């Protein structure tokens, strides 16, 4: 897919304040600091589009971007951010659950997982939750440049094996590095395919 335009639209505190759901929508979620905003910038070819940070908890609202005036790309705040208070965590959970279950134009979400680690309970719990909610998703293993290919491959396999314990079908998965721009074409190609359906 060729990116002709990518613009920031709005940051919303809840699903009801999001833009009119008249275009296919793709959202990015995952543990805080896993690289959601960085990946969005790589996809959109604009390093300054979504705000990134070395400090976890940077993204706090539902951020809408519009690509090629045809589809929405959404940056969500991450989970597992230790410095959040219990009430902030509850607020996050409600915002995310409502958004994921009620947003009618949401085609699929991308769940980002740090490729440096073996399967983490937090990520497994989150994808299982998506299953219960019937939210379609795919997996994106990020920061592949930070370890060897063999390590990345081992962690990806271990995560899929863990899922296979309870899932009959596995979702599509991608491996990315925003440093090397790995995985960009595959994800954009996948979105293009879904947009055409
Ligand atoms: P929150 O909004 O806080 O949930 O974080 P996020 O998931 O949006 O992460 P963000 O994109 O802000 O990136 C966090 C840090 O990881 C930044 O310092 C990025 O530069 C770095 N980072 C993200 N992706 C990659 C990658 O593929 N490779 C490397 N080496 N660093 C990355
Ligand atoms: Mg972010």
Automatic annotation (TrEMBL):
Cofactor requirement:
Mg(2+)
Keywords on record: Cell cycle, Cell division, GTP-binding, Magnesium, Metal-binding, Nucleotide-binding, Septation
Task: Answer yes or no on keyword Thylakoid.
Answer: no
Location of the EngB-type G domain: 22-197
Give the coiled coil ranges. none
Task: Indicate yes or no for the key word Translocase.
Answer: no
> What superkingdom heads the lineage?
Bacteria
- Chain's role: Necessary for normal cell division and for the maintenance of normal septation.
Q: Which family does it belong to?
A: Belongs to the TRAFAC class TrmE-Era-EngA-EngB-Septin-like GTPase superfamily. EngB GTPase family.
Protein name as annotated: Probable GTP-binding protein EngB
